[in-house]
Amino acid sequence: MAADSDTRGARRGFLITASQVAGGVGLAALTDRAWATSDSMQSAMRQVTGEAAVRRGRVKLDMPPLVENGNSVEFSVTVDSPMSATDHVRAIHVFAEKNPLPNVISVYLGPRAGRARITTRTRLADSQKVYAIAELSDGSYWSDAVDVIVTLAACLEELV
To answer: What's the pLDDT tens digit per position in 33-48?
Structure first.
């Protein structure tokens, strides 16, 4: 009986140590992924724009500058475009600097869309700068950015 309890104690000790190690590794991986960097956002933006210049203007990102809860932040993006067959918005992309995945949304449009405007919600992991980039039919890229202060961050609840 004593040998049996020693075996169970050793097994229990091993399982506790293994779960602590696995939990620490998992937490470290989540922590690394949870805090995106400006470089990862710039990389995501380059995947969309390539080497093309991104100019300011023609795009209006409407997002509140102060958000109480980052779990559901409403925003809209409007692009100044006639939306004709020869001059229209091909895509609108939104990027968040500190979210685990910096590419928040990509919406593809065409001249039949009528208006170049989207409205939706997103989660924001922390106070950060949010960017909207529009790709026009002539191959040009236009942008706007908003600094947002988030008092209760989203995307990280499971780490608390």
So the answer is: 455 677 888 899 999 9
Residue 146, domain extent: 35-155
Q: Tokens representing 8? A: 């169970």
12 domain-assigned: no
The CATH number given to whatever domain includes residue 130 is: 2.60.40.2470
For the chain, list residues with pLDDT below 50: 24-33, 157, 159-160
Q: How many domains does the chain have?
A: 1
Q: What is the DSSP string of 118-150?
A: EEEEE--SSSEEEEEEEEETTS-EEEEEEEEEE
Query: Is this model's pTM higher than 0.90 or not?
Result: no
Question: What are the b/e assignments for 108-123, b being 16+ CB within 10 Å?
Answer: ebebeeeebbbeeebb
